[in-house]
Amino acid sequence: MSDKTAKKDGHWQNGIKYLSDIDNITQLAKSQREGLKKVINKYPFFANNYYLSLINWKDPDDPIKRLIIPDRNELNEWGRLDASNEKSNTVVFGVQHKYASTALLLVNENCAGFCRYCFRKRLFISENKETSLNISAGLDYIRRHPEINNVLVTGGDPLMLPTRRLENVISELQQVAHIKIVRIGSKIPAYNPFRILDDPSLLKMFRKYSSRDRRIYLMCHFDHPNELTDFSREAIFMIQKAGVICANQNPIIRGISDDPDVMSELWNELSYIGIPQYYVFQSRPTAGNEPFAIPIVEAYFNIEKAKLKCSGLAKRIRFVMSHESGKVEIVGIDSRFIYMKYHRAKHSRNENRFFICHRNDNAYWLDQLKPVNRFKNDFGRFDYSKTFDFESFDLNKSKAETYHRNLFWPHD
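Request: output the structure for the sequence above.
Response:
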Protein backbone atom coordinates (compact mmCIF):
# COMPACT_ATOMS: atom_id res chain seq x y z
CA MET A 1 0.00 0.00 0.00
CA SER A 2 1.17 3.53 -0.66
CA ASP A 3 -1.58 5.56 1.02
CA LYS A 4 -0.82 7.25 4.32
CA THR A 5 -3.09 4.97 6.32
CA ALA A 6 -1.60 1.51 6.66
CA LYS A 7 -4.77 -0.50 7.08
CA LYS A 8 -4.84 -3.59 9.23
CA ASP A 9 -5.50 -5.95 6.36
CA GLY A 10 -2.10 -7.63 6.28
CA HIS A 11 -0.55 -10.36 8.41
CA TRP A 12 1.55 -7.83 10.35
CA GLN A 13 -1.50 -6.85 12.43
CA ASN A 14 -0.86 -9.99 14.48
CA GLY A 15 2.64 -8.88 15.33
CA ILE A 16 5.62 -7.20 13.77
CA LYS A 17 7.84 -9.66 11.94
CA TYR A 18 11.38 -8.77 11.01
CA LEU A 19 12.95 -9.97 7.79
CA SER A 20 16.60 -10.25 6.78
CA ASP A 21 16.20 -12.72 3.89
CA ILE A 22 15.46 -11.02 0.57
CA ASP A 23 13.80 -14.25 -0.63
CA ASN A 24 10.93 -13.42 1.71
CA ILE A 25 10.15 -10.36 -0.42
CA THR A 26 7.97 -12.23 -2.89
CA GLN A 27 6.82 -8.99 -4.54
CA LEU A 28 10.25 -8.97 -6.18
CA ALA A 29 10.84 -11.40 -9.05
CA LYS A 30 13.19 -14.28 -8.27
CA SER A 31 15.74 -12.88 -10.73
CA GLN A 32 15.62 -9.53 -8.91
CA ARG A 33 16.14 -11.19 -5.54
CA GLU A 34 19.08 -13.18 -6.85
CA GLY A 35 20.63 -10.03 -8.32
CA LEU A 36 20.43 -8.24 -4.97
CA LYS A 37 22.13 -10.94 -2.91
CA LYS A 38 25.59 -9.71 -3.84
CA VAL A 39 24.64 -6.29 -2.47
CA ILE A 40 23.25 -7.83 0.73
CA ASN A 41 26.44 -9.81 1.26
CA LYS A 42 28.21 -6.47 1.60
CA TYR A 43 25.46 -4.27 3.07
CA PRO A 44 22.83 -6.28 4.98
CA PHE A 45 19.10 -6.05 4.39
CA PHE A 46 16.70 -5.70 7.32
CA ALA A 47 13.04 -4.67 7.36
CA ASN A 48 9.70 -5.49 8.94
CA ASN A 49 6.31 -6.41 7.56
CA TYR A 50 4.63 -3.17 8.66
CA TYR A 51 7.10 -0.93 6.85
CA LEU A 52 7.08 -3.11 3.74
CA SER A 53 3.29 -2.79 3.67
CA LEU A 54 3.71 0.91 2.89
CA ILE A 55 5.30 0.15 -0.48
CA ASN A 56 3.32 0.51 -3.70
CA TRP A 57 4.93 -2.38 -5.55
CA LYS A 58 3.38 -1.25 -8.84
CA ASP A 59 5.45 1.94 -8.70
CA PRO A 60 9.07 1.24 -9.70
CA ASP A 61 10.11 4.53 -8.11
CA ASP A 62 8.22 4.10 -4.84
CA PRO A 63 10.18 6.07 -2.19
CA ILE A 64 9.65 3.54 0.62
CA LYS A 65 10.90 0.77 -1.64
CA ARG A 66 13.93 2.86 -2.52
CA LEU A 67 14.63 3.50 1.16
CA ILE A 68 14.50 -0.12 2.33
CA ILE A 69 15.11 -2.43 -0.66
CA PRO A 70 18.76 -2.85 -1.79
CA ASP A 71 20.00 -1.24 -4.98
CA ARG A 72 22.64 -2.87 -7.19
CA ASN A 73 24.40 0.48 -7.55
CA GLU A 74 25.33 0.33 -3.87
CA LEU A 75 28.28 -1.77 -5.04
CA ASN A 76 29.75 1.19 -6.95
CA GLU A 77 33.00 2.42 -5.44
CA TRP A 78 32.14 5.55 -3.48
CA GLY A 79 33.41 7.26 -0.36
CA ARG A 80 34.29 5.40 2.80
CA LEU A 81 32.41 3.76 5.63
CA ASP A 82 33.16 6.42 8.24
CA ALA A 83 32.78 9.50 6.05
CA SER A 84 32.89 11.96 8.96
CA ASN A 85 35.61 10.10 10.87
CA GLU A 86 33.32 9.54 13.88
CA LYS A 87 35.86 7.09 15.23
CA SER A 88 38.18 10.00 16.02
CA ASN A 89 35.53 11.38 18.41
CA THR A 90 35.14 8.15 20.38
CA VAL A 91 36.51 8.98 23.82
CA VAL A 92 35.47 5.79 25.60
CA PHE A 93 33.66 2.69 24.40
CA GLY A 94 30.18 3.81 23.31
CA VAL A 95 30.69 7.58 23.71
CA GLN A 96 31.48 10.23 21.10
CA HIS A 97 32.39 13.73 22.28
CA LYS A 98 32.85 16.06 19.33
CA TYR A 99 31.14 19.26 20.51
CA ALA A 100 31.90 20.59 24.00
CA SER A 101 28.33 20.67 25.31
CA THR A 102 27.09 17.49 23.62
CA ALA A 103 27.94 13.82 24.02
CA LEU A 104 26.64 10.91 21.96
CA LEU A 105 25.89 7.73 23.88
CA LEU A 106 25.70 4.79 21.46
CA VAL A 107 23.69 2.17 23.32
CA ASN A 108 22.99 -0.45 20.65
CA GLU A 109 23.63 -1.43 17.05
CA ASN A 110 20.11 -2.48 16.06
CA CYS A 111 17.41 -0.68 14.09
CA ALA A 112 13.87 -1.63 13.10
CA GLY A 113 15.06 -1.48 9.50
CA PHE A 114 18.26 -0.70 7.64
CA CYS A 115 18.04 2.48 5.59
CA ARG A 116 19.99 1.80 2.44
CA TYR A 117 21.76 5.19 2.72
CA CYS A 118 22.72 4.75 6.40
CA PHE A 119 25.86 6.70 7.33
CA ARG A 120 26.59 4.26 10.18
CA LYS A 121 26.19 1.06 8.17
CA ARG A 122 29.66 0.12 9.41
CA LEU A 123 27.99 -0.85 12.70
CA PHE A 124 26.01 -3.54 10.89
CA ILE A 125 28.72 -5.00 8.68
CA SER A 126 31.83 -5.26 10.85
CA GLU A 127 32.88 -6.14 14.35
CA ASN A 128 31.41 -3.23 16.22
CA LYS A 129 33.61 -1.38 18.68
CA GLU A 130 31.63 1.86 18.77
CA THR A 131 28.45 0.94 20.67
CA SER A 132 28.07 -0.56 24.11
CA LEU A 133 25.21 -2.14 26.04
CA ASN A 134 27.27 -1.53 29.17
CA ILE A 135 27.12 2.22 29.63
CA SER A 136 29.07 2.43 32.90
CA ALA A 137 32.29 3.68 31.29
CA GLY A 138 30.33 6.20 29.22
CA LEU A 139 28.49 7.48 32.28
CA ASP A 140 31.75 7.87 34.17
CA TYR A 141 33.13 9.96 31.31
CA ILE A 142 30.02 12.15 31.20
CA ARG A 143 30.11 12.68 34.96
CA ARG A 144 33.72 13.86 34.72
CA HIS A 145 32.89 16.47 32.06
CA PRO A 146 30.63 19.20 33.44
CA GLU A 147 30.76 21.09 30.13
CA ILE A 148 28.39 18.45 28.73
CA ASN A 149 24.81 19.61 29.31
CA ASN A 150 23.00 17.40 26.80
CA VAL A 151 23.33 13.80 25.71
CA LEU A 152 22.06 12.26 22.49
CA VAL A 153 21.19 8.62 23.09
CA THR A 154 21.66 6.91 19.75
CA GLY A 155 23.02 3.81 18.07
CA GLY A 156 21.41 2.00 16.23
CA ASP A 157 18.00 2.90 17.50
CA PRO A 158 17.61 3.20 21.29
CA LEU A 159 13.88 2.41 21.10
CA MET A 160 14.83 -1.09 19.99
CA LEU A 161 16.02 -1.64 23.56
CA PRO A 162 13.57 -3.19 26.04
CA THR A 163 11.88 -0.42 28.02
CA ARG A 164 13.50 -1.55 31.26
CA ARG A 165 16.97 -1.19 29.76
CA LEU A 166 16.17 2.15 28.13
CA GLU A 167 14.81 3.42 31.45
CA ASN A 168 18.08 2.50 33.09
CA VAL A 169 19.94 4.66 30.56
CA ILE A 170 17.59 7.63 31.04
CA SER A 171 17.59 7.29 34.82
CA GLU A 172 21.37 7.19 35.05
CA LEU A 173 21.74 10.25 32.83
CA GLN A 174 19.20 12.27 34.80
CA GLN A 175 21.12 11.62 37.97
CA VAL A 176 24.00 13.62 36.52
CA ALA A 177 23.35 17.18 37.69
CA HIS A 178 24.88 18.95 34.69
CA ILE A 179 22.86 16.96 32.14
CA LYS A 180 19.84 19.13 31.39
CA ILE A 181 18.62 17.54 28.14
CA VAL A 182 18.42 13.92 27.05
CA ARG A 183 17.71 13.36 23.38
CA ILE A 184 16.78 10.04 21.81
CA GLY A 185 17.45 9.56 18.10
CA SER A 186 14.93 7.15 16.60
CA LYS A 187 13.23 6.08 13.37
CA ILE A 188 10.88 3.79 15.30
CA PRO A 189 7.86 6.12 14.83
CA ALA A 190 8.26 5.57 11.07
CA TYR A 191 9.55 1.99 11.02
CA ASN A 192 7.45 0.43 13.78
CA PRO A 193 5.02 2.74 15.61
CA PHE A 194 3.61 -0.29 17.46
CA ARG A 195 6.72 -0.26 19.62
CA ILE A 196 5.13 2.87 21.12
CA LEU A 197 1.44 2.06 20.71
CA ASP A 198 1.64 -1.38 22.29
CA ASP A 199 3.92 -0.64 25.25
CA PRO A 200 2.25 1.38 28.03
CA SER A 201 5.38 0.97 30.15
CA LEU A 202 7.37 3.02 27.62
CA LEU A 203 4.93 5.92 27.88
CA LYS A 204 4.87 5.60 31.67
CA MET A 205 8.66 5.82 31.68
CA PHE A 206 8.60 8.97 29.54
CA ARG A 207 6.03 10.58 31.83
CA LYS A 208 8.26 9.80 34.79
CA TYR A 209 11.47 11.28 33.41
CA SER A 210 10.34 14.06 31.06
CA SER A 211 9.68 16.70 33.69
CA ARG A 212 8.88 20.40 33.65
CA ASP A 213 12.51 21.49 33.92
CA ARG A 214 14.26 18.53 32.25
CA ARG A 215 12.46 17.45 29.12
CA ILE A 216 13.24 14.40 27.05
CA TYR A 217 13.50 15.08 23.32
CA LEU A 218 12.68 12.50 20.65
CA MET A 219 14.61 13.25 17.48
CA CYS A 220 12.38 11.59 14.91
CA HIS A 221 13.50 10.45 11.49
CA PHE A 222 10.74 10.76 8.92
CA ASP A 223 12.04 10.86 5.35
CA HIS A 224 8.84 10.95 3.34
CA PRO A 225 5.15 11.85 3.85
CA ASN A 226 4.17 8.23 3.13
CA GLU A 227 5.71 7.28 6.48
CA LEU A 228 3.22 9.51 8.33
CA THR A 229 0.52 6.86 8.64
CA ASP A 230 -2.34 7.04 11.13
CA PHE A 231 -0.35 4.66 13.34
CA SER A 232 2.75 6.85 13.26
CA ARG A 233 0.69 9.95 13.99
CA GLU A 234 -1.00 8.27 16.94
CA ALA A 235 2.34 7.07 18.28
CA ILE A 236 3.71 10.62 18.10
CA PHE A 237 0.59 11.98 19.80
CA MET A 238 0.98 9.53 22.69
CA ILE A 239 4.67 10.36 23.03
CA GLN A 240 3.84 14.06 23.15
CA LYS A 241 1.11 13.50 25.75
CA ALA A 242 3.75 11.76 27.86
CA GLY A 243 5.68 15.04 27.96
CA VAL A 244 8.28 14.33 25.29
CA ILE A 245 9.24 17.09 22.85
CA CYS A 246 9.56 15.87 19.25
CA ALA A 247 11.57 17.24 16.34
CA ASN A 248 12.46 15.76 12.96
CA GLN A 249 15.74 15.48 11.11
CA ASN A 250 16.63 13.58 7.97
CA PRO A 251 19.10 13.59 5.09
CA ILE A 252 18.29 14.73 1.58
CA ILE A 253 18.34 11.53 -0.47
CA ARG A 254 17.99 11.06 -4.22
CA GLY A 255 14.61 9.61 -5.11
CA ILE A 256 13.27 9.80 -1.55
CA SER A 257 13.51 13.27 -0.04
CA ASP A 258 15.03 15.49 -2.75
CA ASP A 259 11.85 16.66 -4.48
CA PRO A 260 10.68 20.13 -3.35
CA ASP A 261 7.03 19.08 -3.35
CA VAL A 262 7.83 16.05 -1.19
CA MET A 263 9.90 18.11 1.24
CA SER A 264 7.28 20.82 1.62
CA GLU A 265 4.52 18.25 2.15
CA LEU A 266 6.59 16.47 4.80
CA TRP A 267 7.52 19.67 6.66
CA ASN A 268 3.96 20.99 6.56
CA GLU A 269 2.44 17.72 7.75
CA LEU A 270 4.99 17.52 10.55
CA SER A 271 4.21 21.07 11.62
CA TYR A 272 0.50 20.20 11.86
CA ILE A 273 1.27 17.47 14.42
CA GLY A 274 3.69 19.58 16.41
CA ILE A 275 7.02 18.34 15.06
CA PRO A 276 9.38 21.05 13.77
CA GLN A 277 11.89 20.09 11.10
CA TYR A 278 15.26 20.54 12.83
CA TYR A 279 18.00 19.63 10.34
CA VAL A 280 18.15 18.55 6.73
CA PHE A 281 21.49 16.83 6.29
CA GLN A 282 23.58 16.74 3.16
CA SER A 283 24.06 13.02 2.54
CA ARG A 284 27.49 11.93 3.67
CA PRO A 285 29.77 10.33 1.06
CA THR A 286 29.49 6.96 2.78
CA ALA A 287 30.53 3.74 1.05
CA GLY A 288 27.61 2.29 -0.87
CA ASN A 289 25.70 5.57 -1.05
CA GLU A 290 26.42 6.76 -4.57
CA PRO A 291 22.87 6.02 -5.88
CA PHE A 292 21.41 8.18 -3.11
CA ALA A 293 23.75 11.16 -3.37
CA ILE A 294 22.75 14.64 -4.54
CA PRO A 295 25.19 17.53 -5.10
CA ILE A 296 25.24 20.36 -2.55
CA VAL A 297 24.06 23.05 -4.97
CA GLU A 298 21.13 21.02 -6.29
CA ALA A 299 20.15 20.06 -2.74
CA TYR A 300 20.28 23.69 -1.57
CA PHE A 301 18.03 25.03 -4.31
CA ASN A 302 15.54 22.17 -3.93
CA ILE A 303 15.30 22.98 -0.22
CA GLU A 304 14.78 26.67 -0.99
CA LYS A 305 12.00 25.81 -3.46
CA ALA A 306 10.34 23.64 -0.79
CA LYS A 307 10.44 26.49 1.72
CA LEU A 308 8.32 28.64 -0.60
CA LYS A 309 5.38 26.31 0.08
CA CYS A 310 5.74 26.27 3.87
CA SER A 311 4.71 28.47 6.76
CA GLY A 312 7.34 29.91 9.02
CA LEU A 313 6.69 27.17 11.55
CA ALA A 314 7.26 24.48 8.94
CA LYS A 315 10.54 25.79 7.54
CA ARG A 316 12.70 26.37 10.59
CA ILE A 317 15.27 23.98 9.16
CA ARG A 318 19.02 24.28 8.84
CA PHE A 319 20.69 22.63 5.85
CA VAL A 320 23.95 21.22 7.18
CA MET A 321 26.85 18.89 6.52
CA SER A 322 28.03 16.76 9.43
CA HIS A 323 31.66 17.10 8.43
CA GLU A 324 34.63 15.83 10.39
CA SER A 325 35.49 19.42 11.34
CA GLY A 326 31.98 20.30 12.50
CA LYS A 327 28.37 20.85 11.55
CA VAL A 328 28.64 23.15 8.54
CA GLU A 329 25.52 25.10 7.60
CA ILE A 330 24.99 26.03 3.95
CA VAL A 331 23.77 29.60 4.38
CA GLY A 332 23.40 30.68 0.75
CA ILE A 333 24.51 30.13 -2.83
CA ASP A 334 24.75 32.59 -5.71
CA SER A 335 26.14 32.32 -9.24
CA ARG A 336 29.75 32.34 -8.02
CA PHE A 337 30.00 31.28 -4.40
CA ILE A 338 28.72 28.98 -1.67
CA TYR A 339 28.38 30.71 1.71
CA MET A 340 28.80 28.57 4.81
CA LYS A 341 29.09 28.80 8.55
CA TYR A 342 30.08 26.45 11.34
CA HIS A 343 26.86 25.88 13.26
CA ARG A 344 28.83 23.58 15.58
CA ALA A 345 32.59 23.11 15.44
CA LYS A 346 34.89 20.38 16.66
CA HIS A 347 37.40 23.04 17.72
CA SER A 348 36.08 26.08 19.58
CA ARG A 349 38.13 28.49 17.47
CA ASN A 350 35.92 27.59 14.51
CA GLU A 351 32.60 28.03 16.33
CA ASN A 352 30.30 30.34 14.28
CA ARG A 353 33.04 30.90 11.72
CA PHE A 354 31.72 32.08 8.36
CA PHE A 355 33.52 31.19 5.13
CA ILE A 356 33.07 31.19 1.36
CA CYS A 357 33.90 28.64 -1.32
CA HIS A 358 33.75 28.79 -5.08
CA ARG A 359 30.52 27.33 -6.42
CA ASN A 360 30.92 23.81 -7.76
CA ASP A 361 27.69 22.23 -8.98
CA ASN A 362 29.29 18.79 -9.01
CA ALA A 363 30.50 18.81 -5.41
CA TYR A 364 28.85 16.47 -2.89
CA TRP A 365 30.94 17.30 0.18
CA LEU A 366 32.98 20.08 1.72
CA ASP A 367 36.27 18.45 0.76
CA GLN A 368 35.44 18.92 -2.92
CA LEU A 369 35.00 22.70 -2.61
CA LYS A 370 37.73 25.26 -3.23
CA PRO A 371 37.85 28.16 -0.73
CA VAL A 372 37.96 31.74 -1.94
CA ASN A 373 41.55 32.91 -1.64
CA ARG A 374 42.37 35.29 1.18
CA PHE A 375 38.78 35.59 2.30
CA LYS A 376 38.49 37.77 5.42
CA ASN A 377 35.61 38.02 7.84
CA ASP A 378 34.71 39.05 11.38
CA PHE A 379 35.59 35.62 12.76
CA GLY A 380 39.20 35.56 11.65
CA ARG A 381 41.45 35.24 8.61
CA PHE A 382 42.13 32.11 6.63
CA ASP A 383 45.63 31.60 5.28
CA TYR A 384 45.50 29.96 1.88
CA SER A 385 49.15 30.43 1.07
CA LYS A 386 49.21 26.65 1.08
CA THR A 387 46.22 25.42 -0.85
CA PHE A 388 44.78 21.97 -1.17
CA ASP A 389 44.05 20.68 -4.65
CA PHE A 390 40.29 20.23 -4.18
CA GLU A 391 39.76 19.89 -7.92
CA SER A 392 41.72 16.65 -8.09
CA PHE A 393 40.04 15.27 -4.98
CA ASP A 394 38.63 11.83 -5.69
CA LEU A 395 35.78 10.43 -3.59
CA ASN A 396 36.66 6.97 -4.86
CA LYS A 397 39.87 7.10 -2.85
CA SER A 398 39.00 5.60 0.49
CA LYS A 399 42.16 6.63 2.31
CA ALA A 400 40.99 8.47 5.38
CA GLU A 401 43.88 10.90 5.43
CA THR A 402 42.90 12.47 2.08
CA TYR A 403 39.60 13.55 3.59
CA HIS A 404 40.98 16.13 5.95
CA ARG A 405 44.54 17.07 4.93
CA ASN A 406 43.30 20.12 3.06
CA LEU A 407 44.54 23.08 5.14
CA PHE A 408 41.17 24.72 4.62
CA TRP A 409 40.05 24.72 8.22
CA PRO A 410 42.49 24.75 11.14
CA HIS A 411 43.15 21.35 12.62
CA ASP A 412 45.50 19.88 15.16
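The chain has three domains: 11-75, 86-316, 324-412.
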